[in-house]
Specification:
The complex is a heterodimer of chains A (113) and B (111). Chain A is an all-beta fold and 113 residues long. Chain A has no helices and eleven strands. In chain A, strand 4 and strand 5 form a beta hairpin. Chain A is globular, with a radius of gyration of 13 Å. The termini of chain A are far apart. Chain B is mainly beta and 111 residues long. In chain B, the strands form two sheets. A five-stranded mixed sheet of chain B has the order 1-9-8-3-4, with no helix packed on it. In chain B, strands 2-7-6-5 form a four-stranded antiparallel sheet, with no helix packed on it. In chain B, strand 6 and strand 7 form a beta hairpin. The chains are: A mainly beta (113), B mainly beta (111). At the A-B interface, strand 4, strand 5, strand 9 and strand 10 of A face strand 4 of B.
């Protein structure tokens, strides 16, 4: 079974732009969670989607948003990019998000200049 | 979710067993112990998890003390490719629970 895939793997943007990242979960998994990893803050939870609905949200500004499609694929969007948004963005999938193991994708490395 | 404490770094010789400790003294009865590792700039990789019994899979063994206040991840024959940051995470067994990552243990396997 294929693992979690994320596209693109690397991205360079400039301040003020917006960016959309994509995540395809493991086949059959319906819960997708997003995390941000920076050297200073470590791995932090952004939000979780299940059945096209955001169920949980971390402590991030409204510039960070996401959505999930009927095939469980998910996208996250960051608007009005800031230098501090430079990070590794990770998504993880699980069957239903109800206590099962989460499996991570390789991440998207975003650099904001 | 209960907090965990791990040493910031450990060294291990290639071919030897690597024993990574984790303290989780405030763990609740319905919380699992999970281990993930992250090789530089890659996504975290799931290793193993357990509730109270010792667990073993093809990657590692997990030993949980009887009082569940600490655990040890054992890589029986460490290789250079096991060099990574290892995270010990406690999370509830049901309902959605985000994975709360601490700083983990940087394991360096040397020839």
């Amino acid at each position: 079974k294929a693992g979690v895939t994320q596209t693109p793997r690397y991205l360079i943007k400039t301040r003020g732009q917006q960016v959309t990242l994509s995540c395809s979960p493991i086949s059959g998994h319906r819960s997708v969670s997003w995390y941000q990893q920076t050297p200073g803050q470590g791995l932090q939870f952004l939000f979780e989607y299940f059945s096209e609905t955001q169920r949980n949200k971390g402590n991030f500004p409204g510039r960070f948003s996401g959505r999930q499609f009927s095939n469980s694929r998910s996208e996250m969007n960051v608007s009005t990019l800031e230098l501090g948004d430079s990070a590794l963005y990770l998504c993880a999938s699980s069957l239903t998000g109800n206590g099962e193991t989460q499996y991570f994708g390789p991440g998207t490395r975003l650099l904001v200049l | 979710d209960a907090k965990t404490t791990q040493p910031p770094s450990m060294d291990c010789a290639e071919g030897r067993a690597a024993n990574l400790p984790c303290n989780h003294s405030t763990i609740s009865g319905n919380e699992y112990v999970y281990w993930y590792r992250q090789i530089h700039s890659q996504g975290p990789q799931y290793i193993i998890h357990g509730l109270k019994n010792n667990e073993t899979n093809e990657m590692a063994s997990l030993i949980i003390t009887e009082d569940r206040k600490s655990s040890t991840l054992i890589l029986p024959h460490a290789t250079l490719r096991d060099t990574a940051v290892y995270y010990c995470i406690v999370r509830v067994a049901s309902g959605y629970s985000t994975l709360t990552f601490g700083k983990g243990t940087m394991l360096l396997v040397s020839p």
